[in-house]
Amino acid sequence: MTEKAPKLRAALDGIPTYKPGRPPAADGPAAYKLSSNENPYPPLPGVLESAVSAAGFLNRYPDMACGALLDELASRFDVPVSHLATGTGSVGVAQQLLQATAGPGDEVVYAWRSFEAYPIITQISGAASVRVPLTEGEDHDLDAMADAVTDRTRLIFVCNPNNPTGNALRRAELERFLDRVPGDVLVVLDEAYREFVRDEDVPDGIELYRDRPNVCVLRTFSKAYGLAGLRVGFAVAHEPVAAALRKTAVPFGVSQIAQDAAVASLRSEDELLKRVEALVEERQRVREGLLEQGWTVPDTQANFVWLRLGERTAEFAEVCEKAGVTVRPFAGEGVRVTIGETAANDIFLRTAGDFREGLRSR
Ligand SMILES: Cc1ncc(COP(=O)(O)O)c(C=O)c1O
């Protein structure tokens, strides 16, 4: 036996591990998972059938070019196929973007707190993270983010709506920001929750990308479309960026099951969007309920709500779990709670109300 161990890149030292939302323990009290921003509805029948039918060809590699899916997306969003690239979830596409743009000595700017994968995939790339704190009102501080751009900046993530706070940037402020960012810095508009947006002032990133070659939009089938388990997301970007995404893709990364289910989902969009609408109504109900209880809740445009509980975060998460729902705590900061089944939302609301009452009487 040799004393030597394989040499690993120093960039990996101290990397934070991605914490998935906790599922309810098999023998525990919680019955509902409100910790991963998943869609509580099962796949639509047509979608399930196409996935099952693709499973009959598991001995074959998938279509590496994702041809049928790209054709469907191109007509759905009115963009050229050459401006589209797919990946293993939009987090996979985000990682490909970093591989294509950033390495040691470079900088990646993003708001914090935001999607917890950003620091991880940035560190893996070897680039340095430049985190710009959210404002008091939990918004991206776009002026500070633009000020943070240096000669070393290669990529900026803008999460709209922001995970975990749920609030969204509006057109005028986002356009002003994009006008300030140099054209050789890639701005990634991460719109994982776009379908849940109801505020008309929140722009559709795909409209913003059209005349801005340094803007790339990320979308996913994991949230509104309910295909989180299949791992398929995509980017809309101008040619050089989309071509770079094809170069950095894991070959055959998106399974045929995922591709066919995604196509079927796009074709069942009316039905799917009815479900999204029901979730948006539930979101409204939950947020209003929390406001009535006296909580401060950002104006969420996503499928979750954010409670900034500070030092009470862990305690609140534990109380929720005992009551029957798992939520997503960010230690010392707050709790993100996904809008789920009505019964789950009811349990959460009741628990939040009781907790607040308890705080008053302490
Ligand atoms: C803001 C944001 N972007 C991207 C993702 C990644 O989603 P997926 O990789 O499932 O497409 C998530 C998932 O939670 C998210 O919250």
From TrEMBL:
PROSITE patterns with a match to the protein in the record: AA_TRANSFER_CLASS_2
Entry-linked CDD domains: AAT_like
Pfam families to which the protein is assigned, alphabetical: Aminotran_1_2
Catalytic activity: an aromatic L-alpha-amino acid + 2-oxoglutarate = an aromatic oxo-acid + L-glutamate
Residue(s) carrying N6-(pyridoxal phosphate)lysine: K223
Domain named Aminotransferase class I/classII large: residues: 33-346
Cofactor: pyridoxal 5'-phosphate
Keyword Transferase: yes
Xref: Gene3D superfamilies: Aspartate Aminotransferase, domain 1, Type I PLP-dependent aspartate aminotransferase-like (Major domain)
EC code(s) of this entry: 2.6.1.57
Region Disordered, annotated ranges: 1-36
Keyword Acyltransferase: no
Keyword terms of this UniProt record: Aminotransferase, Pyridoxal phosphate, Transferase
Assembly, per entry: Homodimer.
Family affiliation: Belongs to the class-II pyridoxal-phosphate-dependent aminotransferase family.
Stated role: Aminotransferase that catalyzes the conversion of aromatic amino acids and 2-oxoglutarate into corresponding aromatic oxo acids and L-glutamate.
Protein name per UniProt: Aromatic amino acid aminotransferase
Source species taxonomy: Bacteria, Bacillati, Actinomycetota, Actinomycetes, Kitasatosporales
